[in-house]
Design a protein that fits this description.
Largest sheet: none
Helix content: over 70%
Number of strands: 0
CATH class: Mainly Alpha
Bound molecules: fe (ii) ion
Shape: globular
CATH architecture: Orthogonal Bundle
Oligomer: single chain
Order of helices and strands: HHHHHHHHHHHHH
Structural class: mainly alpha
């Protein structure tokens, strides 16, 4: 009944692409208040994270390629969705955010003067975060939960209508990605006890890791948007992750208290130390 139908459905969900304004924000950046200018600057590093999505999908593809065929064959939906949709949409997000910051900071276009070595680095010089494709796939889903809430939080702070529309549209894409990864993982979990067990092990190993950490620029990005992760936003993200895990497995493999502890431990180990060091 399913076959490849699900992947075609998921790709169709992204058919109605929104107008990015031809990546030309010269006039818009002139209208931004000092408050909104700070937001655009904070999102510059997030643009790197968006572009690194291509590297993340390359990494997922390699993990699938090198996994035993009997299990790897069921990952085709995630690889196809990654190549056909994630690569395309995250590239747009990255170019938009980098273009806004570049126009604001230098008056020059990022898109027209893009540094090939930066793109190469983001695609291929990535940190190896995952030991198998279950971990990378679960990380994409949980990471998109954070992405949606980041953009929702930014959207609520932005004053300029045009900039707010850009942020809202990126948020909507991330919402679609979140739903797609959920659908793909759920189908795998429900189709086989082996997949289910491996996804549970993967969840326990990586539920606190964001997929953009494959990029060495991730910490800069995370630090620059820290203020958008208010305590209530952070709590919502954790609740949402727990809700999704409950939806996938019937019961979350990790209780909320343990999730919080492991998130905080990871954050303190990787970000507080970094913030003190710089
Ligand atoms: Fe994105
Ligand atoms: Fe996304």
């Amino acid at each position: 009944m399913h076959g490849a139908r699900n992947i075609l459905r998921l790709l169709k969900l992204g058919d109605n692409k929104w107008d990015v304004g031809n990546y030309n924000y010269v006039d818009m950046v002139k209208e931004l208040s000092p408050h909104d200018q700070e937001i655009v600057k904070a999102l510059d590093n997030i643009g790197d994270g968006e572009l690194s999505a291509i590297g993340i999908i390359v990494q997922h593809q390699n993990l699938v390629k090198n996994y035993p065929r009997e299990l790897a064959k069921d990952f085709y939906e995630s690889v196809m969705y990654g190549f056909c949709m994630i690569n395309y949409e995250e590239m747009r997000h990255g170019f938009m955010l980098k273009e806004l910051a570049s126009q604001l900071n230098t008056g020059q276009s990022f898109v027209d003067n893009v540094d090939g070595s930066l793109i190469h680095e983001l695609m291929f010089e990535t940190n190896e975060l995952y030991k198998d494709p279950y971990e990378s796939l679960m990380s994409y889903l949980l990471g998109e939960i954070t992405n949606v809430e980041l953009y929702a939080s930014v959207e609520s702070h932005v004053e300029h209508e045009g900039l707010r529309n850009i942020v809202r549209n990126i948020k909507k894409d991330e919402q679609a990605h979140k739903g797609a990864w959920l659908s793909i993982i759920k189908r795998m979990v429900q189709s086989s006890e082996t997949h289910r067990e491996k996804f549970i092990a993967a969840t326990k190993a990586i539920h606190f890791i964001h997929q953009a950490e494959v990029s060495k620029y991730f910490k800069n990005g995370a630090l620059s948007v820290q203020k958008f992760f208010t305590p209530s936003v952070s709590k919502f993200i954790l609740d949402e992750k727990h809700k999704f895990l409950t939806d996938i497995f019937g019961e979350s493999p990790i209780d909320k208290k343990q999730m919080l502890t492991e998130h905080l431990d990871y954050f303190n180990e990787n970000f507080v130390a970094h913030a003190t060091a710089v």
